[in-house]
Amino acid sequence: MRSITSRAPALALAIAAAGATTALAPTAAQADTAAQEPLAQLRIAGPDGEVTVQGTCGDSFTPEIVDGWGFVTARAYWSVWCSNGNVYMEGWVDDARSDGACAAVRGEFPNNPTQVAHNCPADSPRTEFTFKGTGRIVNGYLFLD
Protein backbone atom coordinates (compact mmCIF):
# COMPACT_ATOMS: atom_id res chain seq x y z
CA MET A 1 0.00 0.00 0.00
CA ARG A 2 1.09 3.57 -0.54
CA SER A 3 1.87 6.20 2.04
CA ILE A 4 1.09 9.68 0.80
CA THR A 5 2.14 12.53 3.05
CA SER A 6 1.71 15.59 0.87
CA ARG A 7 -0.55 18.29 2.28
CA ALA A 8 -1.30 19.75 -1.15
CA PRO A 9 -4.93 19.72 -2.28
CA ALA A 10 -5.74 16.75 -4.47
CA LEU A 11 -8.68 15.00 -6.00
CA ALA A 12 -10.21 12.00 -4.25
CA LEU A 13 -7.78 9.24 -3.44
CA ALA A 14 -8.64 5.62 -4.22
CA ILE A 15 -6.70 2.58 -3.16
CA ALA A 16 -7.57 -0.81 -4.61
CA ALA A 17 -6.48 -4.25 -3.49
CA ALA A 18 -4.19 -4.90 -6.44
CA GLY A 19 -2.30 -1.62 -6.03
CA ALA A 20 -2.99 2.06 -5.74
CA THR A 21 -4.17 4.69 -8.10
CA THR A 22 -4.41 8.36 -7.28
CA ALA A 23 -5.54 11.43 -9.08
CA LEU A 24 -2.22 12.92 -8.01
CA ALA A 25 0.77 10.65 -8.75
CA PRO A 26 3.16 10.14 -5.81
CA THR A 27 6.80 11.10 -6.17
CA ALA A 28 9.46 8.39 -6.45
CA ALA A 29 10.47 9.09 -2.83
CA GLN A 30 6.88 8.63 -1.66
CA ALA A 31 6.58 5.36 -3.59
CA ASP A 32 9.83 4.06 -2.06
CA THR A 33 8.63 4.97 1.45
CA ALA A 34 5.25 3.37 0.77
CA ALA A 35 6.78 0.00 -0.03
CA GLN A 36 8.19 -0.15 3.53
CA GLU A 37 4.96 0.64 5.41
CA PRO A 38 2.23 -1.94 6.15
CA LEU A 39 -0.70 0.52 6.43
CA ALA A 40 -1.74 3.29 4.07
CA GLN A 41 -1.09 6.64 5.76
CA LEU A 42 -3.47 8.85 3.81
CA ARG A 43 -2.96 12.54 4.40
CA ILE A 44 -4.29 14.06 1.21
CA ALA A 45 -7.78 15.46 1.27
CA GLY A 46 -9.73 16.53 -1.77
CA PRO A 47 -10.85 20.13 -2.32
CA ASP A 48 -13.86 19.39 -0.11
CA GLY A 49 -11.60 18.16 2.73
CA GLU A 50 -12.70 14.55 2.30
CA VAL A 51 -10.41 11.51 2.11
CA THR A 52 -11.87 8.72 -0.05
CA VAL A 53 -10.58 5.14 -0.02
CA GLN A 54 -11.80 2.06 -1.87
CA GLY A 55 -10.89 -1.14 -0.07
CA THR A 56 -11.45 -4.86 -0.28
CA CYS A 57 -10.94 -7.87 1.98
CA GLY A 58 -7.70 -7.66 3.97
CA ASP A 59 -7.02 -3.92 3.47
CA SER A 60 -6.34 -1.52 6.37
CA PHE A 61 -6.25 2.27 6.30
CA THR A 62 -5.27 5.14 8.63
CA PRO A 63 -6.48 8.35 6.95
CA GLU A 64 -6.05 11.83 8.42
CA ILE A 65 -7.34 15.24 7.43
CA VAL A 66 -4.73 17.97 7.85
CA ASP A 67 -5.66 21.66 7.78
CA GLY A 68 -3.76 24.39 5.93
CA TRP A 69 -1.46 24.96 8.92
CA GLY A 70 -0.43 21.32 9.17
CA PHE A 71 -2.64 20.38 12.15
CA VAL A 72 -4.49 17.06 12.09
CA THR A 73 -8.20 17.84 12.40
CA ALA A 74 -9.58 14.30 12.02
CA ARG A 75 -8.14 10.80 12.00
CA ALA A 76 -9.48 7.31 11.62
CA TYR A 77 -8.48 3.68 11.27
CA TRP A 78 -10.39 0.91 9.60
CA SER A 79 -9.82 -2.58 8.30
CA VAL A 80 -11.86 -4.37 5.67
CA TRP A 81 -12.62 -8.06 6.05
CA CYS A 82 -14.96 -10.53 4.41
CA SER A 83 -16.99 -13.50 5.60
CA ASN A 84 -19.84 -15.52 4.05
CA GLY A 85 -20.49 -13.12 1.17
CA ASN A 86 -20.38 -10.03 3.38
CA VAL A 87 -17.78 -7.26 3.61
CA TYR A 88 -17.11 -5.48 6.89
CA MET A 89 -15.51 -2.09 7.53
CA GLU A 90 -14.45 -1.96 11.16
CA GLY A 91 -12.48 0.68 13.05
CA TRP A 92 -12.68 4.05 14.78
CA VAL A 93 -12.95 7.78 14.05
CA ASP A 94 -11.52 10.61 16.17
CA ASP A 95 -12.12 14.37 16.12
CA ALA A 96 -8.61 15.70 16.75
CA ARG A 97 -9.23 19.46 16.92
CA SER A 98 -11.72 21.70 18.71
CA ASP A 99 -12.74 23.68 15.63
CA GLY A 100 -16.52 23.31 15.60
CA ALA A 101 -16.49 20.52 13.01
CA CYS A 102 -17.03 16.85 13.81
CA ALA A 103 -15.01 13.98 12.36
CA ALA A 104 -17.06 11.37 10.51
CA VAL A 105 -16.51 8.13 8.61
CA ARG A 106 -18.89 6.88 5.94
CA GLY A 107 -19.02 3.40 4.45
CA GLU A 108 -20.68 2.96 1.05
CA PHE A 109 -21.36 -0.59 -0.11
CA PRO A 110 -22.70 -1.49 -3.56
CA ASN A 111 -26.46 -2.20 -3.30
CA ASN A 112 -26.55 -1.50 0.46
CA PRO A 113 -27.47 1.52 2.61
CA THR A 114 -24.71 4.01 3.45
CA GLN A 115 -23.53 3.82 7.07
CA VAL A 116 -21.97 6.72 9.05
CA ALA A 117 -20.16 7.12 12.38
CA HIS A 118 -19.51 10.57 13.96
CA ASN A 119 -17.12 11.75 16.67
CA CYS A 120 -17.43 15.12 18.38
CA PRO A 121 -16.23 17.07 20.35
CA ALA A 122 -12.48 16.70 20.22
CA ASP A 123 -12.14 15.81 23.91
CA SER A 124 -14.60 12.89 23.65
CA PRO A 125 -13.37 9.29 23.37
CA ARG A 126 -13.01 8.11 19.77
CA THR A 127 -16.05 6.44 18.22
CA GLU A 128 -15.76 2.78 17.22
CA PHE A 129 -17.82 1.36 14.37
CA THR A 130 -18.55 -1.81 12.41
CA PHE A 131 -20.29 -1.42 9.04
CA LYS A 132 -21.58 -4.41 7.06
CA GLY A 133 -22.62 -4.87 3.44
CA THR A 134 -22.79 -7.62 0.83
CA GLY A 135 -19.95 -8.27 -1.59
CA ARG A 136 -16.21 -7.70 -1.30
CA ILE A 137 -15.73 -3.94 -1.81
CA VAL A 138 -16.48 -0.86 0.31
CA ASN A 139 -15.79 2.83 -0.30
CA GLY A 140 -14.69 4.47 2.94
CA TYR A 141 -14.69 8.23 3.54
CA LEU A 142 -13.18 10.33 6.32
CA PHE A 143 -14.69 13.82 6.36
CA LEU A 144 -15.61 16.78 8.57
CA ASP A 145 -19.28 17.27 9.32
Notes on the structure:
There is one protein chain. The chain is mainly β. It has one domain. Helices cover 5% and strands 47% of the residues. The chain is built from 1 helix and 11 strands; from the N terminus they run ββαβββββββββ. Strands 4, 5, 6, 7 and 10 form a 5-stranded antiparallel beta sheet that branches. Strands 3-11-8-9 form a 4-stranded antiparallel beta sheet, with no helix packed on it. A two-stranded antiparallel ribbon has the order 1-2. β5 (64-66) and β6 form a beta hairpin. It is elongated, with a radius of gyration of 15 Å. The chain starts with 12 loop residues before the first strand and ends with a strand. The model is unreliable at 1-44 (pLDDT under 50). Residues 1-31 form the signal peptide. Keywords: Signal. This is Secreted protein.
